[in-house]
Here is the input.
Amino acid sequence: MRRIATRLPAEPVIYLGDTARVPYGTKSADTVIRYARACATLLCKRNVKLLVVACNTASAYALDTLREELPIPVLGVIEPGAQRAVQATRNRKVGVIGTVGTVRSGAYQAVVHALDPAIEVLAKPCPLFVPLAEEGWLEGPVPAQVAHAYLDELLAAGIDTLVLGCTHYPLLRSVIAEAAGDAVTIVDSAEATAAVVADTLAAMGLACAPGGPPPRHRFLVTDDPAGFARIGARFLDEGHPARDLAEVEWVDFQ
Here is the structure.
């Protein structure tokens, strides 16, 4: 949401957080597909023109299903992140960190190998990063120790590129980058996805023209709007056009 709103300041964005059912990263593929289908159906009823499956786990398990079933363009976050990693690596050793579900799916590995079979992909689940991000523990000895516990094995294997394969991980980017060292390029799949969104809207003639009034961004959640507003504000930079989370709408799947 933050990257897209920054890259496309004229576009109104509807964000749906399935807060009643997260985390997706520990659930089965069938369950994730069922949840993702319900989320997509709700958003289509709001007349969205393009859907971004912003969850890495949902992208891994549900993207093909949604593309087959929906009448609008559907983008995931794995393909753009993997493509950026292939472009960035110099020694053809790429690390991927994500949820248990994302790593277990092998989705990043599959996309990278489709682009360059010679690249070695080492994937590591990092489940503690999500609660650290949501609690605001973004710096200090605790997140630093956790980062080293997760990353040291990948670094010892010689990776020179690391994909942040979860929406929460960019909040911990400074800690992760410090643990990884200057020789490792950090790839934020959200940045790569925002660029693909911009290109897709432009290519299909769906982009909003710049110069109009500021768009109204909407935030929908399936549970605890107040808690989402408190945590969600941590994900948005000061002065960001979507910073105001005063209006968070509770929704349910019908």
